[in-house]
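Quick one - first record:
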Amino acid sequence: MITGSQSWNSSFATTPTGSSFAGSPTGSTGAVSQSVTNSVPGITSMSPTSNTVTGGSTDLSDSGSPEPTQTPTTVAGGNNGGMTTTWSSSNMTAPTPSPFPAANYTQVAFLAALAEDTCYHLPEEPHGELSRRALMRNSKLREDNVTVPVPYIQSVEFESEGVRPLSMTVRDKSQGTFHIDISNRSRLAITSSDGYAMQIDGSGIRFVTKDCRYDVNITIANLFSQIANLSNVGCSVGTGAQPFPSPIPVPLINTNTKRAEDIKFNQTILLRDQCGSPVTKAIRAYPQLRVGETTCQDIAVDENSGTWEFDCTFPGAISGILQCQNAVKNDIIDFLNRDSFGGACPDISTMIATLGATGNDMLSRDALGVALYNQRGSSNADNSSSSIENVASGYTLLWESLQGFFIPQNASVNSPWEEYIGTYNKHRSFENDICEDLHTGEIPLSLNLLVGATYIDAVTTLNWAPRAARTYNVTVQDPAAIACCPNGSEADDQGKATCAYPREAVIEDTNCSCGKTAGGESLAFEAMECDNFEGRCERDEDCRGGGSVCVVGTCCGGGVCVDPYACSQNGTALVKFADGWSGSRVF
């Protein structure tokens, strides 16, 4: 807790051992001088006034940054489906926010803590399964003598089904790596390979380490609105206005390499039930034909012949590869290039550039170090000046990495992120390479059918959309039709103790057998004690029960009256393949 002014440690004036931080302040006293050094096109009114921040609490009554009315306790990273992505601003000593006299922002406060109970981590697979990683084909580009811009994307992490991106791994000029969290469109988060993390959202900016130590929470009221005003971008923040356009359009989608898309084709199925009757629209369940997981639409039905025509697509909107490509476009390309922060305006590159040009007094190594230095003694965490110094430098390097990815460099009008995507899509396809890497094994797709009491998991398999699809004749089971069956037989050894139906007439694992009616047709009927049948018979007219028919040649010494629907309605498989009984037949 900040209890009073404490002297500034002079070691903050030097670069810590092993750090590549090149922007160290030059002073060696307790005062830290900061000024705006970056520039953003279109920003016409920037205050160059230096801010002097002394170590310890400062009277900010005239700073334009009023004391916050409450202490923030928990800032959630958004709904991530159970991912461990949490920010917390509470610890054992409940530090209070300290107003900060920012040069270009109002209502700014620092809240620092040396140790936390919970904190931010890169998003994980929400259901505890293994995530899936797609590697970019940067080496293939180099083999084709293409210069890959740096920094560049090395890989993209997805949840287990490969349709929701979680994070990107980016390699920088020094061959180091950092990770950008793309799992939540209301924020932008970046982590370094050594565990430093930074998050930006509408409420401010937060820094923390992977072990939940050295947290710095910079709260800025209406951050996106303030950035929009400073950048002079004409838009209505938070209202879904048109996004800020990129200065020069870059090929975010490769127009040379065809993107996988739904290809339509017509599929005809000739449907007949177990009795050979045409299947009509009256059947329950209604016919449903699917390519993989994508349902086809029935477009014409000839009920006299049972001919059904379907309009299908390949690979289908619900296919893994198409869902993946839509996610890459929406959750990576659009999010990072134009539809940032849930529709806030301007885009990420403009936001980062503006924040870099106008917020260095808040985001400098010294401002972060002072906030942590003043928390010494508030926890059992390592509070040595050298540890705090290294952490502050790590946070600064992380902020520089974020700027290096999203701010145009060396007089370019496009950011390195845009330059990389533009180069990649000029020669390959960013979406195709990612999603083919994840979903190649899902092709071929099965053409599956659900109708009546029948499910066929593969009428056929498809590697592509057929130009002239073959017509399939499919026998299915209608539970509302009588229990017709193939190979109807009379029992052997009738009237003897050894009486039984031949093997081909026995419907395995059921209480039904395929017998012969008095009219000579095959019918499945339920076996029971002879005295339990409705009656004895020689012809259908002998059966007085409503709808009963006469099955002859039974082990009861003659014919018996049976319910012709019983074995159809109890789920017995009435269609027989060469390898056994089933609820369907395809030919």
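second record:
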Amino acid sequence: MSVEKRVIKKYPNRRLYDTATSCYITLVDVKQLVLDNIDIQIVDAKGGEDITRSVLLQVIMEEEAGGMPMFSYDVLTQIIRFYGNAMQGVMGNYLDKNMQLFAEMQGRLQTQAKSVMTGENPMLSNANLWGDFMKFQGPGMQSMMNNYLESSTSMFVDMQQQLQDRARHLFTGMGMPGYGKEGSVLSEDELQPTDPPASKEPPEPEVAVSKPAPRRRATKG
């Protein structure tokens, strides 16, 4: 049974209209809906196009502009390099699965920590005190998330390089055009056919010129 999503309409004036509450909302409200685990769908009010991803990216951009960005320069540049790459689809699935695993791990850690802390200290059973405790743990969790993203992306880049190296050696052994003797990719100039060497014409044979025999001088009788 599919869960019905909460529809939000975006008008040409860039205002967001929540159809569930019949009021206009901001990107901060969109973020809160995501934090509350409410499935949303944002559509263009004029054309009906689904623009959920673009609006969520705006939310991420605002969060990244804050004091504690999640994506480092290296992670962003590596992700950009995968656009248009043959591994783009694989990279998307890789990040998706890793984010799901990290979210599940984070949920288990929070559940275990809450059960332990509330069991040993009854004062932490208060919801407000527990919320303050989790806010204090936020920077540590975000730092761990940063390291997780960087290591995951770097590991995927290394895996891609290994696959390229193996393919290069395989194509070299098969004698595929475009690869050098040691698996190096040939340049465009090297792939151009070379003109055959100009044939040298044999030298013309020398014609021997016969010299006239010298005249004998007449002797006096």
